[in-house]
Design a protein that fits this description.
Number of helices: 3
Structural class: mainly alpha
Radius of gyration: 64 Å
Strand content: under 5%
Helix content: over 70%
Order of helices and strands: HHH
Distance between the termini: 186 Å
Largest sheet: none
Shape: rod-shaped
């Protein structure tokens, strides 16, 4: 019935192998494996080309960034110079305003001093006048007490001056 000789087994394996190859070929044809392999190869090649382009774009961007970083130092220096100019301007304005304030304070102090001097002078004059009047009053009283005739003479002169007034 079954002959398990080497020739039969070999012959049977070759036929099975041929059938399997034919089956895989048919399956590859039906499933369009070659087309899909070609599409996959084209897709991989497209991705490689895209990655090359992205690499070139990235290098160009890197170059631009490098150039802009070179300009950053100049921009920083320009900003620092502008800030220093602004600070100097602010300092100058502040000094001018401070000088004006100091000058105004001086003027106000001088005015106040002059006003206080006038007040002190008027108080001194008033005090001097009051003292002079008191001294004169004391001298007149003592002169009148010592000389009664002088007292009568002043009274008569006063009465005569009243008669001369026209009312």
């Amino acid at each position: 019935m079954f002959d398990f000789s080497f020739a039969n087994i070999l012959h049977s394996n070759i036929i099975n192998f041929a059938i399997m190859i034919a089956f895989f070929a048919f399956l590859a044809y039906k499933l369009e494996i070659m087309t899909k392999i070609e599409d996959l190869r084209a897709s991989v090649q497209k991705k490689v080309e895209d990655s090359d382009q992205l690499k070139k774009d990235a290098e160009a961007d890197l170059q631009k960034v490098s150039e802009s970083l070179g300009n950053v130092e100049e921009e920083i220096n320009a900003i620092i110079e502008k800030a220093e100019e602004t600070a100097k301007s602010f300092e100058q304005k502040t000094r001018e305003e401070l000088d004006k304030s100091v000058e105004q304070l001086k003027q106000n102090a001088e005015k106040q001093l002059a006003s206080e001097q006038n007040q002190v002078q008027s108080e001194v004059i008033k005090s001097f006048s009051n003292s002079s009047i008191e001294i004169a009053q004391k001298q007149i009283k003592s002169a009148l007490e010592n000389d009664k005739q002088l007292h009568r003479k002043y009274i008569e002169d006063f009465i005569n001056s009243i008669d001369k007034i026209d009312v």
